[in-house]
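Query form — protein Pseudouridine kinase

QUESTION: What is the three-dimensional structure of this chain?
INPUT:
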Amino acid sequence: MREKDYIVIIGSANIDVAGYSHHPLNYADSNPGKIKFTPGGVGRNIAHNLALLGKNAWLLSAVGGDFYGQSLLAQTNQSGVYVDKCLIVPGENTSSYLSLLDNTGEMLVAINDMSISDCISAEFLAQHQEFIRGAKVIVADCNLSEEALVWVLENSGET
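ANSWER: The structure tokens for Pseudouridine kinase are given below.
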């Protein structure tokens, strides 16, 4: 890899789960519909779109050591994003976002479990400092912790 020919994206990667009801919802009951699982997360989505544009995109994120984490990294890698430097945290759940939509497509409620994003810490980023500083462009998901954002700002070098 030539110096400065890659983009580093630091941010979340999660599984988006959306439930779509076929009919008006019956509360406190099971409702027929469709459930979709798709890769998501601000950082992952940015990296994915940069890869679609033909850019050399590297994602620095954290996923759980579960099926969803494995699947998310595989799908993201298949889309052309390098995921080799992502942190896999055994025993933790991969970040997820669950939404419930009614039959008109209106979101009624959502729940997120994105606590693993706290693993994208200054300590984790420091392990990749040379790589991050060598990037042509650094993109930081502003949903990162304050500690991680401060680290990026203080350690990004001339990029």
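ADDITIONAL NOTE: The chain has a mean pLDDT of 96.
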